[in-house]
Amino acid sequence: MKVLVVGSGGREHSIVKKLVESNQVSNIYAAPGNGGISAEATCVDIRETEIDKLVTFARDMQIDWTIVGPEVPLIEGIVDAFQLADLRIFGPTKKAAIIEGSKDFAKAFMKRHHIPTANYATFTDCDQAKAYIQKNGAPIVIKADGLAAGKGVVVATTVEQAIEAVESMLLDNRFGGAGSRVVIEEFLEGKEFTLMAFVNGSKVYPLLPARDHKRAYDDDQGPNTGGMGAYSPVPDLDQSVIREVEEHILQKAAEGMVQEDRPFTGILYAGIIETMNGPKVIEFNARLGDPETQVVLPLLENDLIQVIEDVMNEKDPVLKWKEGYAIGVVVASKGYPGTYEKQIPLPSFIENAESYVVHAGTILAENNTYQAIGGRVLLVGAVEETIEKAHQSVYNFLKQFEQTNDFFFRRDIGRTKINVKNS
Ligand code: AMP
Ligand code: GLY
Fold first, then answer.
1. DSSP state, 146?
2. 36, 64, 143, 189: least buried by Cβ within 10 Å?
3. From the CB of 144, is ligand 1 less than 6 Å away?
């Protein structure tokens, strides 16, 4: 089989690594890919949003399956375009990807289907939004309705911060159209985790739970990022909570999308906070999480392309998981998530059997060395019997990055994250 992976981050490198293991896959292409991917697959110079070019490439190269990593092409209708051209692709249609593309849609959908989530209201008028904030007080969460490259959520600890956030979205058009409508929601207190599932219509096959670390610095300090590390599974989660999310959140969402004539196919991602009143949804995504994928896929024993074929052909796949835990720690450019220098050479590092390296914002330069061109550069991961051992293996490897002033990483990945008021 020939497989095309769309995207250029760590998530996509992880997908490529999983495909390399498959004895059914003969050729792997990535558009556009990254430095690390180029060592394991053929990178194609087409951006993830150049949908027509991707269709032409897949048709010309007789690609058997296309797997889409990021949300933007999904929300722009890449799956619809491939289906129209009779090409096999794994991901939701535009109509289904709206579950991630519009927070207002997702909230109203959850309400219609009695899926537990934070209370909320939606506004386009700034004065009404401000009145709502005054009435409800802080902490309170402000979300741009549309896609804002992970920057559209403000967890406001004071009323002033909340007002500033709605003003920047509704009056100053900080996110353009994506922020011309805002969802204001109740702050949920509790531990956060991610549960993703393969979905085809009303059929749901959950992956292992994972936990992402979104803040830039240790002890969950500093600005929000795309994710500084993750681990899977999540030791402090009760099996009953996972089952509740599977049955009352993912299953209900899949069935709700079918009922609303927007059947979802692909990966459905539920971002959850385990509150005192049970697990509640903070977001749905229409794709694999980044960096969760980089710790979940290494634990999957099945052939990924076989799972996708089975899910799509309505044959129930039996997912098998390695015992133990995976941890992944992101190495980021100094300055991230703010501004940072580009084309900085990576320090040379030696890979070992105890860990694995996933590339994100890298390119392979002419002299066969890697350069950093993105905020998140690498993820170093390890799978071990215990979370402590996995932690040790990763941080042993990362000693090779301690001497550099150009990159940084968190030292506390693998510790429990608790979302506490006023923290
Ligand atoms: P997002 O950019 O959608 O991934 O959200 C960023 C972060 O905001 C999440 O990972 C949560 O930690 C936090 N968050 C989002 N919604 C809520 C909420 N209703 N209550 C508390 N924290 C939230
Ligand atoms: N890890 C969060 C996301 O992929 O959106």
1. S
2. 189
3. no
- Nearest atom, ligand 2, residue 227 CA: 1
We find that the CATH architecture of domain 2-94 is 3-Layer(aba) Sandwich (3.40)
**For the CA of 192, the nearest ligand:** 1
226 CA distance to ligand 2 middle (Å):
7
What CATH architecture does domain 119-186 belong to?
2-Layer Sandwich (3.30)
CB of residue 153 inside a 6 A radius of ligand 1: yes
Q: What's the longest Cα–Cα distance across the chain?
A: 60
Give the number of other CB atoms < 10 A from CB of residue 238. 10
Q: Is the pLDDT higher at 180 or at 248?
A: 248
Secondary element (H or E) of residue 271: strand 265-275
Provide the 8-state DSSP code for 177: G
Measured from the Cα of 150, ligand 2's closest atom is: 5
The phi, psi pair for 203, rounded to 5°, reads -90, 130
Helix (H) or strand (E) holding 122: strand 120-123
**191-312 has CATH 2.40.170.20 classification:** no
Please state the rounded mean pLDDT for residues 83-97.
98
Residue with the nearest Cα to atom 5 of ligand 2? Answer: 289
- Which tens digits make up the pLDDT trace of 357-404? 999 999 999 888 999 999 999 999 999 999 999 999 999 999 998 888
Whether pTM > 0.90 for this model: the answer is: yes
pLDDT digits (tens, 9 = 90+) for 299-355: 999 999 999 999 999 999 999 999 999 999 999 999 999 999 989 999 888 888 899
From the list 38, 87, 46, 93, the residue with the least C-alpha distance to 63 is: 87
Residue nearest to atom 3 of ligand 2 (CA): 289
**12 CB under 6 A from ligand 2?**
no
Ligand 2 pocket residue status of 71, Cβ below 6 Å: no
Fold of 325-408: Glycinamide Ribonucleotide Synthetase; Chain A, domain 4 (3.90.600)
Q: How far apart are CA 261 and CA 255, in angstroms?
A: 10
Which ligand 1 atom sits closest to the C-alpha of 186?
19
List, as one string, the DSSP characters of 358-405.
EESSEEE-TTS-EEE-SSEEEEEEEEESSHHHHHHHHHHHGGGGTT-S
Q: Determine if ligand 1 sits within 6 Å of the CB of residue 188.
A: yes
Over pLDDT 70: what percentage of the chain? 98
Q: What is the pLDDT of residue 151?
A: 77
* Ligand 1 atom with least separation from CA of 153: 2
pLDDT of residue 423: 33
